[in-house]
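Risk mitigation, structural track. In case the binding assays with fe (ii) ion fail to produce interpretable data, a predicted complex structure has been prepared as a fallback.
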Amino acid sequence: MLIAHISDAHITEPGTKAFGVAPMADNLMLCVDHINSPKMRPDLVLLSGDVTNDFNVEQATYARAILDQLAMPYFLVPGNHDCREVIWNVFGGAACPSRHGEFINYVIEDHPLRIIALDSLHPGQSGGEVCPVRLEWLADQLAKGGTRPTLIFLHHPPLKLGVPETDVCGFIGADALGDLIRQHPNIQRILCGHIHLDTHSQWCGTTVSTAPSIGMGLDLNLDQQGESEFMLTPPGYFLHHWLPQEHLVSHTIHVETLSGPFAFANVKA
Ligand SMILES: [Fe+2]
Ligand SMILES: [Fe+2]
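Fallback model:
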């Protein structure tokens, strides 16, 4: 099973760039073309939030027009740059197949890996939240799945990753979420976005992975002084490969490469 995982698209209105400089719609189109190429062709695509840059329906509709060109099913969760109701109005019943009350929580059941989409939006805040209602829903879904290998997919990473987007903005309910995660060793991975960096960290008995943005990379500043800034980065995404031996291998895919491929056999030592 192959899963393409794209994140933080920050789509703006047609003909515009995010923050005036980042050609995110063009980047998303490049990613869609790459994912559709015969070499990739994953079973499904996940987009881990920040679909839009400024919450509005025009941006979400434009994102949908691009994402609908994917040749396989795709699913998404809202991020802190999204409005939950706009996302539901544009993607509900399709990329967000169902919801639980106000929250865009749902489960994708029909694959070797069970995928639980969890809404971590805390409206008006940059940081994440899993409130008691969402936690109870997640506990119920994990109980229903038994020991089936499972992925959880949400926008905000629920742990500190050494950048202000997690360490300062925080995640309400992270401790309770961690206690629940620890009880389910069948959770193969927690897939997130939000920090615009590709990272992998151990947390509560599983691994949390954050996907790169499709073109706005966080300018890494580990002393966390000053305002966060981003760099324009080549478009890319994660490709998660579920092997028959039941390991999830995660590749960072660069949509644009300098040159190649070249055969290793032709390189003289
Ligand atoms: Fe983002
Ligand atoms: Fe975000």
